[in-house]
Known about the structure:
Layout: E1 6-10, E2 16-21, H1 22-28, E3 32-40, E4 46-51, E5 62-63, E6 66-69, H2 76-88, E7 97-105, E8 110-119, E9 131-137, H3 139-145, H4 153-167
Parallel strand pairs: 3-8
Antiparallel strand pairs: 1-2, 3-6, 4-5, 4-9, 7-8
Amino acid sequence: xxxxxxxxxxxxxxxxxxxxxxxxxxxxxxxxxxxxxxxxxxxxxxxxxxxxxxxxxxxxxxxxxxxxxxxxxxxxxxxxxxxxxxxxxxxxxxxxxxxxxxxxxxxxxxxxxxxxxxxxxxxxxxxxxxxxxxxxxxxxxxxxxxxxxxxxxxxxxxxxxxxxxxxx
Length: 168
């Protein structure tokens, strides 16, 4: 997705209050919508990847989610399936299962984040312009890597919330 892609701008309650190009939304810190999809393979391992250095936000960092921004007028569920298929490089995924939504906010960024999970039993072929490196990791290995690799802060926040959500 390009910096010219139009996004819905939303308020604290996730209500649409306007639209803006993606680049402007990031530059001005305008609140928008994103989806985070935890993809597991048939062995229940988690898809982990390193973002390319050309990414607009959090270049060259690791992430345990695939996903991205929700386009203007697009539903979260639609964006989740589109983003998962695009980033994993597959077609025919099952619809990702919605788990929970939270507001991610820092001094620089703010977006409503919907967290999903999907089973991907298809061979993956991630987009070269999005993904520098990838693998499927057992959850124990992922937990160990949390303290060793540089993770995208929004993905890390989503993963911490996912662990808390599961522990309820």
